[in-house]
Design a protein that fits this description.
mainly alpha; elongated
Length: 165
């Protein structure tokens, strides 16, 4: 779910979101599945990641960078080790990300008048019926619908990929 406390003024570019995910992955046919994740990484900067980011995606392939990344979420090494022993994973590190589902992504586009108000119910039928094989199929459909809506509504726009949510 989008944490509105941290995203009130977030300008996440759609193009950046699509660069962070593998659009050729299979589509899950459920709008409640994580689409992407992000977290604030500076004053006005956000890191955008896949729906289930792993340490290599975030920190790169070097173990020292991965260690530093994980430790950045904790006060000290003991806290990180305790978290891992207790939970079998670095829960506090994973909770440093805000996860956005497909449905939340579409709701944000609707709220920003990038898609029509009734769009979620319209596309939900297609999602549930398995119309989309890959994430790319889903994105292509959303882009087509955006372009159609923009033309009908006379919305001045630079295009779907340049939009922010």
């Amino acid at each position: 779910m989008i944490n509105t406390n941290t995203t009130t003024n977030a300008d996440l570019q759609i193009a950046d979101i699509l660069n962070a995910i593998d659009i050729f992955d299979n589509f899950t046919d459920v709008l409640d599945t994580n689409f992407f994740s992000y977290r604030k990484e500076g004053y006005d900067d956000f890191g955008i990641y896949s729906g289930e980011p792993d340490i290599e995606e975030v920190a790169g392939m070097y173990v020292s960078d991965q260690d530093a990344e994980i430790l950045s979420a904790y006060s000290n090494l003991q806290e990180a080790v305790s978290d891992y022993i207790s939970n079998g994973e670095y829960t506090k590190w994973q909770n440093s990300f805000t996860y956005v589902t497909y449905g939340e992504f579409l709701k944000r586009l609707i709220e920003n008048d990038i898609l029509p108000q009734n769009y979620l119910s319209t596309i939900e039928e297609d999602v549930n019926s398995g119309e989309f094989l890959t994430i790319s199929d889903f994105i292509d459909r959303v882009q087509e619908d955006f372009e159609s809506y923009a033309m009908k509504s006379n919305i001045a726009t630079e295009g779907f990929l340049s939009e922010t949510i």
